[in-house]
Structure formats: C-alpha cells, structure tokens
C-alpha cells in the first residue's frame, strides 16, 4: 500500500505531466539575455555627389526571413533582430502578431533600409520610420542604426535640429508638472520625482539631454514600447541599444529630428522607394511626395509607374525596387542627384501647380523655375524613355527583387484636402485679337450714334467713335492685368498651403 509521501510524489508528477501536455511541444521561452548579444553592425555607403549615379549606394542591410516557432511573438522577434514593433508589423501585414507560427509561413525580417535625406553626419531620427541613424561614429561614410519609441499622438516628438548637451547615468526623473497632473488623473500617482535606478523610472540607465528643451534620448523600463508611440516626446531605445550608443556619443554631437515619410535610395544602379505610414498626419499624399523626391534627384524618368504606385499603397516600410526594366538604370549625362550638403528633406510635401497642358520635357537639366505641369504628369511619370545623351553600358550586378506582398491598401496617391486643381491662368490677348475687338466695338458704337443723332450730328458721332476706340483699345490691357492678378492669387494660395 503506497505511503502518503508516495501519493504526494505521484500527484506532483501527474500535475507536471498535465502541464506539459497542455503546452505546445518545443515552445520557445524568450529570456532577457537573448537580446543584444551582438555589437551593432556598421554599414558603409556612398553618398550622392561622391560617385557617378550608378555607383551611389544609399541602401544598407539586407532583407531576411524567419520561420516562427511556438512561443514567438512580434515583440520578441522585433527585439531579437533589433527592430521596432512597428517595423515588424508593417512588413508582415495579415500575420498574427501574437501567434505568428499558426500560419506556418516564414516572416519578412525588414533589416534593409534607405538612408534618410540629406545629411551624412551626426544623429538623425526619422519620426515616421521610428528609427535612428548615427552617421560617422565609426568613420567617414559609415552609419549605425537603432529602432526607437517616440511621443504619443498628444505628446508628439518635435521636428528640429539639436546637440547633445548633457549625459547622465542612472538619471533621476524630475516629473514636469504637466505630466504629473496627467499621472494623478490617469493612475493616481502623485510623486514629483523618481530616483535613478528605480525599476519604475522610464528613463532607464542612461540619458542624453538635448538642446531641444525638455527632450532627450534615453533607455526605457518597458522595452516593448520601442517601435510604438508611448513617450511624452522623448526618444526611447532598447536597454541593450542605449548601452552601446551612450559611450560612443560625446557631448556636443549634432543631430536632427526629421519627418520623412518617403525615402528614395540607390543601390547597384537600381532605384528604391521606402514608404511609411503618416504617424502624425503631417505628410498626406505619399505619391506626390515620392514623385517630387524622384524629380528633385533627376530619377523620375527611370522609374516604373506601376511599381511606384504599389510601393506607395502598401506602406510596408521596406525598400522596394521601383526601377523600370531590368539591370541597372541607364542614367543619362544630365542626371544629377541631390547633393549631400542639402539639409532640407526632399520628401517634404508641397503643392504641385497644374495647367492646361503638360510642360515639355527637355533633355538638359531643368531650370530653377519650372512651368506648370498637368496633374497626370505630377502624380506619376510618363512612359519611360531613354535619355538624349549616350548611356553607359549596363553593369552586371543587379539588386535582388523583394518577395510579393499582401493585398495593397487604399490608394494614397492624393489627399482629398489637397488635390484641388489650381485654376489655369488666362493668357494675354494677342495683338490681332485686340485690334479686331477694337474695330468691332468702334463700328458698333458708330452705327448706334449715327442712328440716334442723324446725318446732321456727324461731328458728334465722330467724337463718340474716337472715344469708343480709346475705351476698346484699353480692354486688352485690363484683361491682361486681370490675368496677372489671377495668376498671382493662385500662386499665393498654393504657397500658403505648403
């Protein structure tokens, strides 16, 4: 007969067996030590202006795939590959974020990036992408990149230039009064500060304060918030990333917070577009932004319209090859990329003037003032045609294509609030037209005067006819002034909406 001890042991074994049977076989259990094992990868690039167009390289990294296992989630996989949650979710639309292994298909690991425009030194944080780029930390034309968490919709991370003004280890969080009131209302927390090293301190172990008042780059006590809008405007990094960024960033390092929803890059003579969601609603009309960026770089003639539209509609945040044809683009001698010294992002939205007919395309570089173009020409490129100048022979290297994406989303080629066409400016009347109108008016007035006054008032009719001529001759000038005023008003209206 079994003793009480044996009964207890058997009951414990049975309980363990039940638990194991209920749990998926070989389920992975993620540990804190699984993340951040490797040093950050240092990428090299070739900026515009440093080489011919077909040798410029502003796309870094490579796309990977991952076969999910039981126990994997997007949160764990994103952190393991040093990605934000947003990047992993956008690259895998339709996949289950919490049980991705259920589908049994590989996931896209979006570890390929188009570099933001247009500076190549210091720290750049691209807000729609929720990613940081640190240029020059490991030498000229090198870059290191980290995912970040940013400000909530009601506490937006601002756009602007900055410098690192102070560095702190285990910083104390002195809670601003505006945030303290929010914490009292939402959670009932009334403390005025949280000491450094406290597990509830949202600054984590390291903080770098910026010259942008009240903002900083720091760690976090909630790593899963990286790749999400969770902060009060500061830039949050994974604990393992801030551990590596902090010692390599001296006080005085320059940087900039930018908002580039669409990025355009080159690799092996191929053109890539990377499109992200408009997080703060600051850049509607992604198609227009993409076309403007391509036109500014003199790349619009080498892009496949259908590929570009698909990339804009999908908004996967993954670089998509939008080059027309196979092999490297045959850039003409007049192709010039935006120089690296330009600080303003070319992808910022702006209104496109419209007219009655498309502007003719010249083979030489476009002048500073471009004639208005039709809406069709401003939204998508016309049929691709070779440049006038002799093109260099294609290179053997080609960039691999990306795997097919899921069903595309809503067409974002234009925003309803910004797609109204500007009225076409009336043209200046020609000389022959003016003379015809003047003569016709004179004849009509003279005939009327003759019928009313009779043959005895010829002199009076002559005087009326002369005055009529003067009035009619002045009409073209008034119409011309009216046309100029209409054009000026239309241009002013367009400028005020930028």
Explain this structure.
It is a single chain. This protein is of the alpha+beta class. The protein has a domain at about 35-260: L,D-transpeptidase catalytic domain-like (Beta Barrel). It is built from ten helices and 20 strands. The strands form six sheets. Strands 1-8-7-6-17-10-13-14-16 form a nine-stranded mixed sheet, with helices on one face. Strands 18-19-20 form a three-stranded antiparallel sheet, with helices on one face. A hairpin with a 6-residue loop joins strand 7 and strand 8. The longest helix has about 40 residues, at about 460-495. The model is unreliable at about 1-5, about 15-25 and about 335-498 (pLDDT under 50).
Instruction: Look at the structure and name the CATH superfamily of the domain at 33-258.
Output: L,D-transpeptidase catalytic domain-like
Shape: globular
Task: Calculate the terminal CA-CA distance, rounded to whole Å.
Answer: 89 Å
Low-pLDDT segments, ≥5 res = 1-5, 16-23, 333-498
Strand order of the largest sheet: 1-8-7-6-17-10-13-14-16
């Amino acid at each position: 007969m079994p003793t009480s001890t044996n009964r207890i042991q058997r009951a414990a074994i049975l309980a363990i067996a039940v638990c194991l049977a209920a749990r998926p076989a070989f389920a992975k259990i993620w540990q804190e030590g699984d993340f951040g094992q490797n040093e950050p990868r240092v990428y090299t690039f070739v900026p515009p202006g440093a080489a011919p167009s077909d040798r410029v390289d502003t796309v870094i990294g490579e796309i990977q795939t991952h076969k999910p296992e039981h126990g994997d989630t997007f949160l764990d996989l994103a952190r393991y590959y040093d990605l934000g949650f947003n990047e992993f979710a956008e690259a895998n639309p339709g996949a289950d974020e919490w049980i991705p292994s259920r589908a049994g298909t590989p996931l896209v690991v979006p570890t390929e990036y188009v570099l933001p425009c247009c500076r190549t030194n210091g720290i750049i944080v691209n807000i729609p992408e929720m990613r940081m780029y640190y240029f020059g930390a490991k030498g000229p034309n090198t870059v290191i990149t980290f995912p970040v968490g940013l400000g909530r919709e009601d506490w937006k991370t601002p756009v602007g230039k900055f410098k690192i003004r102070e560095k702190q280890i285990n910083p104390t969080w002195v809670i601003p009064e505006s945030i303290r009131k929010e914490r009292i209302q939402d959670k009932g927390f009334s403390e005025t500060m949280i000491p450094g090293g406290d597990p509830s301190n949202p600054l984590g172990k390291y903080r770098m304060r910026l010259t942008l008042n009240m903002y900083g780059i720091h760690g976090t006590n909630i790593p899963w918030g990286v790749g999400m809008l969770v902060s009060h405007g500061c830039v949050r990094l994974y604990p393992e990333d801030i551990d590596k960024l902090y010692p390599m960033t001296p006080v005085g390092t320059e940087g900039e917070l930018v908002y580039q929803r669409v990025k355009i890059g080159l690799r092996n003579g191929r053109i890539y577009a990377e499109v992200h969601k408009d997080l703060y609603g600051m850049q509607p009309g992604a198609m227009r932004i993409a076309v403007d960026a391509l036109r500014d770089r003199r790349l619009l003639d080498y892009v496949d319209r259908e590929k570009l539209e698909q990339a804009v509609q999908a908004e996967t945040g993954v670089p998509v090859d939008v080059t027309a044809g196979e092999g490297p683009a045959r850039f003409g001698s007049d192709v010039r990329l935006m120089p690296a010294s330009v600080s303003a992002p070319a992808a910022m939205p702006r209104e496109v003037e419209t007219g009655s007919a498309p502007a003719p395309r010249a083979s030489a570089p476009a002048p500073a003032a471009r004639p208005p173009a039709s809406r069709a020409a401003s939204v998508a490129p016309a049929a691709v045609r070779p440049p006038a100048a002799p093109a260099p022979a294609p290179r053997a290297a080609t960039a691999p294509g990306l795997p097919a994406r899921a069903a595309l989303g809503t067409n974002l080629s234009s925003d309803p609030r910004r797609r109204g066409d500007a009225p076409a400016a009336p043209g200046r009347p020609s000389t022959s037209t003016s003379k015809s109108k003047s003569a016709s008016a004179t004849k009509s007035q003279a005939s009327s005067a003759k019928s009313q006054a009779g043959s005895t008032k010829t002199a009076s009719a002559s005087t009326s006819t002369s005055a009529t001529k003067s009035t009619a001759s002045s009409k073209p000038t008034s119409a011309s002034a009216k046309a100029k005023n209409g054009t000026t008003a239309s241009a002013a209206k367009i400028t005020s909406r930028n």
